[in-house]
Amino acid sequence: MCTAVTYHTRSHYFGRTLDLEYAYDERITITPRNYPLHFRELPDLDHHYAMIGVAFVVDGYPLYYDGVNEKGLGVAGLNFPGNADYKPRQAGKHNVCPYEFIPWLLGQCATVQEARKLLERTSFLNVPFRADLPLAPLHWLIADRDSAITVESMAGGLNIYDNPVGVLTNNPPFDFHMLYLENFINLTRGPATNRFCASLTFQPYCNGMGAMGLPGDLSSPSRFVKAAFTKLNSVCGNSEAESVSQFFHILGSVTQQRGCVQVGEDKYMTTLYTSCCNVDTGVYYYTTYGNSQISGVDMYQENLEGTELVSYPLIRELQIRMQN
After folding, report:
1. Which of 62, 159, 193, 199 has the smallest CB count inside 10 Å?
2. So which residues are the catalytic ones?
């Protein structure tokens, strides 16, 4: 259960929440331009665009959950169980495993338009990274400064949707979310107006009543609507501090607190981390469930012509800035 959004003020921002009941040793991971990327069925990329994101590194391979590259393209994979469907090897296609999709795409595409062209001949291969790491059922949000798309590999084939709201959550498929969003066409950030009956006089008794009916539960469709309404009605200045703060507030509207969504005995969905990457500057900001203080890693402070992965552990322990 996750939520991903795009946002721009003076700069363009891309980020997500990762909502799970467990964590691996995921880290902020920078893949420099000359770190060789190997693929099951596709040619290696020995030289490619540099990228930064959160990855679980296994046997030297960055299994990215999300990332952005130096050209400003961002990709996030979100859970899509029951709908995601991967295929055997397809002749004449780019057969890419889901776990290698993010570095493969970010390594060679600078824009959504380039990604869409590559995806037209792409098939997702049903081969896991290792036997003990089965394939995650995913769909993806891909965005640059100008546009966003959603990519879903399903039983009927590969679906590529324009995503005009720049938001993605989990099940059901994306076309359902866009249709469901129409149920909330009357919501407004302005004052409530009487559409009930012209002969009755109503007096709103508090602010915010124009958005009554906005979902507040933690289901995927409700989070999609809540994130879209919050993002599309957001008012923010152009400074980096204002923009980053507002981005975290937008995703904060759909974060999950431990105990509210039970998925097994003593297992609860929580927002393990929330990210916000300024794709123009390459700075990846994040918070974790245990540490709400914003931390950051600057991709351009590293040697991007290097041949080794660079990683930083997520700061998970609470940090408090005392003022006296």
Report:
1. 199
2. 2
First to last CA, the chain: 39
Measure the CA–CA gap between 227 and 15, rounded to whole angstroms.
12
In the three-class reduction of DSSP (H, G, I as helix; E, B as strand; rest coil), residue 57 is classed as strand
DSSP assignment letter at 17: E
CA distances, 219 to each of 19, 78, 222 (Å): 12, 14, 5
Catalogue the E-assigned strands of the chain.
2-8, 12-20, 27-31, 51-58, 61-69, 74-79, 94-96, 122-124, 138-143, 148-154, 157-162, 167-168, 262-264, 267-268, 270-278, 283-288, 295-298, 310-313
Dump the DSSP string for 127-155.
--SBTTBPPP-EEEEEE-SS-EEEEEEET
Instruction: Please give the Cα distance from 88 to 123 (Å, whole number).
Output: 9
Intervals of the chain under pLDDT 50: none
- CA–CA separation, 74 vs 84, rounded Å? 21
Residue type, position 281, single letter: T
Structural Rg of the chain based on CA atoms: 20
Q: pTM value?
A: 0.95
User: According to the model, what pLDDT value does residue 39 have?
Assistant: 97
Bridge partners for 29 per DSSP: 53, 311
The answer to whether residues 96 and 124 touch, using CB atoms and an 8 Å cutoff, is yes
List Cβ neighbours of 195 (8 Å cut-off, separation of 6 or more). 186
pLDDT of residue 57: 96
Sign of the CA dihedral 188, 191, 193, 196?
positive
Report H helices in the chain.
101-108, 112-119, 174-181, 220-232, 240-252
Distance, CA of 132 to CA of 269 (rounded, Å)? 22
Where does residue 153 rank: exposed (0-12), middle (13-18), buried (19+ CB within 10 A)?
Answer: buried
